[in-house]
Amino acid sequence: MEEDIEAYIAYLRDSRQASRNTIMSYTYDLNRFCSYMKENGKTDVREIISTNLTSYVLYLERIGLSPATISRSVASIRAFFLFLLRRGRIQEDPCEQLRSPRIEKRSRDSLGMKEMDRLLTAPDPDTPKGMRDRAILALIYETGIQIAQLNALGLNDVNLNLDYICCHEEEQDRVIPFGRITHDALNRYIQEARMNLCPNSEKLFSNCRGNTMSRQGVWKLIKQYALAAGIEQEITLSMIRYSYEQHQVEKRIRG
Q: What pTM value is reported for the model?
């Protein structure tokens, strides 16, 4: 199956002149699909039937992917098998009965708890940069601060005893509490990684050269880890902030 996927990606790149982002999305979707099928004993595309595809969609739902993300994966699979059918690699299209999940319109987008967990744990926990990035993601998630506020934070603006940060605004200082996820991430970053990244700075965070992080730099790392976590939809700060609010409501409902 890997050779078929490689042939399809080459077709997208060379014949369809697809964009880099499109190729990356198709590659990610189809490699995940291939891994699932191999784990379930299907290594040849000619062995795959509609029941296998339905099981795969149910699997994507179980691991907490959003309907929009699953629909995108289904679209990738449909296009892949249509390519195989036209090339004579398969005789019947197993996707004829495949249905995408219904996407309900919401006033604001959010990430599922499993998706958010994958985003927060995407950074490498054993490197200084990974510890820094997890602390950044956790802070944005649990406090909802803007990137400018994040970059302005000094080491003295963090209180790990009472679990809050202090943002210095024009009219007054604002104290924002955070939870256990941020406490653990910040504590490890400050104790084990910060001196390696910004030994001569009073800022809480810096880039790998020891300079203040830029807005573009923070956005780059957020999008990088979103892709690594399998979140294909466009991610925003408001989405991450609203996700935290939604998750707190869900936890309360579950008791």
A: 0.57
